[in-house]
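Appendix B. One record, verbatim.
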Amino acid sequence: MSALFRCPPEVLLRSAIRQGQNLTRNAQTPKLHRCLQVSPVSSARSTHRAAVCTELGKPLKLQEVPSEELCTGQKVRLSIKGCGINYSDLLMAAGLYQDKPPLPFIPGAEVAGDVIEVAEGVTSVSKGDRVVAMAALGGFAEQCIVDEESVFRMPDSMSYEEGAAVVISYGTAWLGLTRRANTKPGETVLVTAAAGAVGLATVDLATNVIGAKVIGAAGGPEKCKVVADKGAIGTIDYNTQSIRDVVKEMTDDRGADVICDAVGGDVFKQCLRCIAWEGRILVIGFAGGDIPKIPANILLVKNISAVGLFWGNYRINDESTHRKSIQDVLGFYQEGKIKPHIGKTFSLDKANEAFMYIHKRKSTGKVVITM
């Protein structure tokens, strides 16, 4: 199982890379498939370009790497057209991730592209299919090899950039809103970090699929505009406004029925002060760096529920639910109900600039590497 699915979602990891704190390491080195390791070019029959991490904490290097022979088993070779950047990629390249692949390695886990080869026995996709996929590593490259179970056909109208942006963010948001928070049409949903990848996906799905009324909290007027453009009925700039006061005003003092929080700390505390009777607060992550404590008496007095979501763990503990969340959001795109927000794209040779752009918190939605 890849490191991506064992570790916290990207919103839990932002503070670690900003503060330079090391996350807890596993007791053993992860057993990555040999196809993910970068071997010498001289022995390869063919090569392709990749952005390679050759030294932790140093810039990635654009190199020609060997194109491995197709691995045995249910494997699929992809010609990658786009790779979404997740915070786990930055952490892994910085040496701050809890699983450390052997050097050198190619970051990148969320890819979109074309099937160019399949192993014997693969039945769900064929050569020439346009697909999205979850890779263990290797996405910052022109090719990668992935498991058949991690590959999904793309809607015909979906661009490769959108395909590289939809799986993790929208899968997380959809399971959070439905399976964990049981969001109903007409309910008020408050989303923090609403201009981020998961935040905007939550706004999109809650508004345009479920039919909820969304209030989005983000940092700064430009990010608030992005949130409003995605469908929120109101926005909160938490650099200058009180979350509690604005939510109370917008709901006639009732509060939000569902709160999706990816920030933690003081933002979480403000959210608890503006939750409705029988409301549900969904814990997605702690981008602010502080993990809050939940006063049990508030849960009791207001009859509210606090639930957590670690989307990646569903692949380990409930794979059918994990796959269905991806299939569902691809279906919503096909129906024209949702559209991923691509904040910025960078070419493969600008991968280091893309990392810095995210690190400085300039991004909205998803940042994608294109080939």
